[in-house]
Every structure is written in structure tokens, then in C-alpha cells.
Amino acid sequence: MAATRRPMTLAAAVATAVALGASVLTLPALAADRGAEKPAPPKLELKDGTLQWGVKESFRKYVMGMAHGKIEAKGGATQAADNGVFTFSGGLGTYDTGTHATDTAFKGSVRFTSALHKFDISIADVKVRTQGKTGAIRADVTLNGAVQNDIDLARLDLSAVRPGQGGGEGGAMVFKDIPTTLTEKGAKAFNGMYEKGAQLDPATLTVTPGGPVPGKPTEPSTPTEPTKPAETPKPPKPSKPSKPSKPSKPSKPSERAEPRQPAGVVDGSLSWGLKESFRTYISTGGEATVAGGAKKISDGYRFPYAKADLDSGAKKIDASFGGSVRFTYKAHGIDMKFSDLKVRANGAKGTLLADVTTPKGTNNDVRFAALDLSGVSYRPKNDVVHLDKVPATLTAAGAEQFANDTTGSPYKPGEKLDPVTVALASKAGATLPEADGGEAGGTGTSGTGATGTGTTGSGSVGGGGTVGGGTGT
After folding, report:
1. Please, are residues 327 and 288 in contact by the beta-carbon 8 Å criterion?
2. Exposed, middle or buried: residue 221 (CB in 10 Å: 0-12, 13-18, 19+)?
3. Among 87, 121, 122, which residue's Cα sits nearest to residue 107?
4. Which of 23, 69, 351, 392 could form a disulfide with 114 if both were Cys (CB 3.0 to 4.6 A apart)?
């Protein structure tokens, strides 16, 4: 029976390359005299390393597009043509044969600036550290003058990494397209424009295994003088036996508190209008169509209940809603559908997720909006938990859904969206808050409108710019 082929981790591949290379390092034998002290496992040198990583393609497009900004790579870092990825060079590091960890540092820095959108972000002193199937890209990040040194900027998933066929020049090992995701500290470094866990550009790491890292010579130890034999200790006098203690009375068993069970949810609804200015813009020449049980109301749309978990005491909600709304504007090349909406709440914070479908495909469970729940009550009233008009702001992932290939997204992370209202009933027959069932009209006050020529009026799409192919003025 053929042996199952397993993915080779970066560290294992480096070790294999060293073992099979022309300048073979003879490692200490695994078997040794049990009485002898084992030497520390040797470290191997990694040299001539490069890291190819674009941070995040949509961010680069945003900087050079609607932000009218600038990207500078220097000090050993370069950027590929056409706003491409960055290459950090001069990588030097080590591979620990004992822990199978690698640590490689690179030269160069990258700076993103925009006077219009008021940000200045630099990434420098980049390192890649791995152990087993995980790793991190570390860096010094400066945001508008505030420096955070040596933070884990991105997580690496090495579970499926294999060295490239034939390797690189001079016996270099090439590990191509390593998946990367943003860390919590990385999200803060980018001023909250992206959330923890956001998918970043894949990274390609190239390293050349070298010889052993020279260790420091140890000084011979000074022999110690033999100690004098201790005097023979006197045997201790036997102590008197202590009286046996009286057995304590058994305590009464404490009554068990019944665990609090999350309330069952039998009905509910989600009311939301996405963004009033966007709806007004669509109404000038496009159409909004609801399906799957969703209804138009005066200030947006109402989506029917699908399922939910609710724990009012812990202030937690995980609710899903059916139906969909589709926005089309043929003259401006817009076709967007929002479906499978979810609200996840924990205390004062929450997230609205949605499946977003465009002609390019469907992005599932997009963390579309951040919810501010600091002013709501999770306490049920008449068997209904009512989170009314919860403030919502656009996330970076949400902004990306509106981006086109020429000017990026007209909306910036952090922009205000329409408030979100959630109602969840824990008993059959409970009355949900009523919503106006009237059709949404074009009464918004978001600008001067749009013509049928593909040009939107200033401010008509939430602050200028384009959506899906129109040109802003």
C-alpha cells in the first residue's frame, strides 16, 4: 500500500535541503550515552532571503485611487510595476533544528500616505517567524507618527506549504503563496480600516540554507574544592503522639443552581435600509427588488426571521434572516444583491454579515457593518427583545464590495450606514414591533441626482465617487 503524502512544513523542508545539500552538516547522533549531557541542538543559517508580499491589493488600489495617495518602497524594498507587490530583500536568519522554528529578518520599508484622507502608514524591519504549521509576519508599523515596534502584523498558514519544484537559484527554497490574515494588532495599526482575520495578499518566501550558526566557545570551568564531610547528625527524639482529631460534621450539600438556558426564539425580523443616499441614487434610474420574503418599507427593507440564539443575560445574539434585496442600475453597470443577513452581537459591539452577489460572483458572510450596541437593552419586553435603530458603520470588507477596477470604492471604512433594527420574540404569539410597509421612494437628500449617461451628481453616492462603473464629478 502506497504511503500517504503529507504536506511538508517550511522548517522540515529547510532541514531536508540542508541534509541533502552539497555542504552537508553532520548532525549529532540521536542515540547517546544516557549518562552524558546532551548538547543543545544546532541552529542553521538562512541567507539571501526575500519576502514577496503586497500587504493587501485592494488597499494599494485604494491608496493610489480614490485616496489620491502615494506608495514608497525603499531601503532594500522594491515594488513591482503597475502598483504590484513588494519585495523585501537581504533576508538573514536561522533555523532551529531542535524546535524546528525559523526566524528571518529582511531589509527595506514601505510607506503609504494620503494627504486627502489624512493617513501616513509605514511598515519597516520586516521579519518572518515560523514554527510548525503556523507563523507570523512581524514589523515595526508607524501610523501617523505613532510607532508600534515588532508587532505581529499578519498570521501565516503553513499547513499546505511545499517548496517549489527545483527550488530557486543557488539551492534556494521557494515557498509560494502562503495564505496570510490580519492580526488584531495589525488591524489597529491600519487604524481600524480592516478587521482582525481579514484576508491579506499571499506571501512568497525564499531562503537559502547555509551552514551551522557558529556557537560561542565555552570557557573551562574552575574545579571546585572538595567539601568537608558533614558531622554525623544526632538522631531526633521521638515526639509524643498527637491526639486524634474529632471528625468534623459533614456539611449539608449545597443546592445546585440551575444553569441559565438561553431563551428560545420563535420569530423575529431585521429592518435595514443599507444606506439612504445609495437607495436614492439607485432610484434615479435603477431598481431595488426584494425576494424570498423580504419587504420594502419606508426607510429600507424588512427581512424575515430564519433562526437565532439569544442569551439576554449574557447579552449575546446570533441571528439569521431570510430574503434578499437586489440593486440594479443598468446604465451605470450596477448589479448587487444582499442576502442571508446575520446579526452577531456581544455586549456593546456587534456585526452585520451578508452574502453579497455581483456579476463577479458571491462573497459569503461578508462582515459588512460594525454595530454600536452600547445604547440598547437586551432585556425582553412583552417577550420581545427589541434592538431599535442600532448605529451601523461600514467595515473595510463592506467597502470592498462596492469597488470597481478603475477607481476603487466610493465608500470608506467607517462611513455611517442606515441604522439596524432587530426584533426577536421568545414566545409564539408575541407581537413584533410594526414597520411601515410602504414602498421606499426617492425622497432622500443625498445630492443632485444622476443622469442616464453614467455620471452621478456630486454627493449622490454617499460622498462622491462611483459605484459599479459610473464616473463621479
Report:
1. yes
2. exposed
3. 87
4. 69
> CA–CA separation, 218 vs 213, rounded Å?
15
Helix (H) or strand (E) holding 74: strand 70-74
**Which H or E run includes 370?**
strand 361-372
Query: Does residue 372 carry a pLDDT above 80?
Result: yes
Of 252, 243, 301, 306, the C-alpha closest to 274 is 301
Q: Are 198 and 48 in contact (CB under 8 A)?
A: no
**pLDDT tens digits, one per residue of 231-260:** 545 555 555 555 555 555 544 444 343 334
The residues near 416 (Cβ < 8 Å, ≥ 6 apart) are: 391, 392, 393, 394
| Length of the chain counted residue by residue | 473
Q: Is 159 helix (H, G, I), strand (E, B) or coil?
A: coil
User: What is the sign, positive or negative, of the torsion defined by CA atoms of 135, 137, 143, 147?
Assistant: positive
What are the structural domain ranges in the chain?
Answer: 41-212, 267-425
How many angstroms separate the CA atoms of 186 and 55, rounded? 11
Measured in degrees and rounded to the nearest 5, phi and psi for residue 226 equal -65, 140
Hunting for cell 442616464 — which residue is that? 452
Longest dimension (CA), the chain: 108
Bridge partner residues of 121 (DSSP): 112, 143
Host H or E run for residue 47? strand 43-53
User: Mind listing the pLDDT tens digit for each residue in 16-50?
Assistant: 554 444 333 333 333 334 444 455 567 788 898 99
Q: Which amino acid is at 276?
A: E
CB 102 within 8 A of CB 130: yes
Pull the grid cell for residue 168: 530557486
Give the torsion through C-alpha atoms of 210, 216, 217, 218, to 10 deg: -140
Exposure class string for 394-407: b at 16+ Cβ within 10 A, else e: bbbbbbbbbbbeeb
| Full DSSP string of 382-450 | TTEEEEEEEEEEE-HHHHHTT-BTTTB-SS-TT-EEEEEEEEEESSTTPPPPP---SPP-S---SSS-B
The residue among 374, 377, 371 whose CA lies nearest residue 348 is 374
CB within 8 Å of 369: residues ≥ 6 apart? 351, 352, 392, 393, 394, 395, 398, 417, 420
How many other β-carbons are positioned within 10 Å of the β-carbon of residue 212? 15
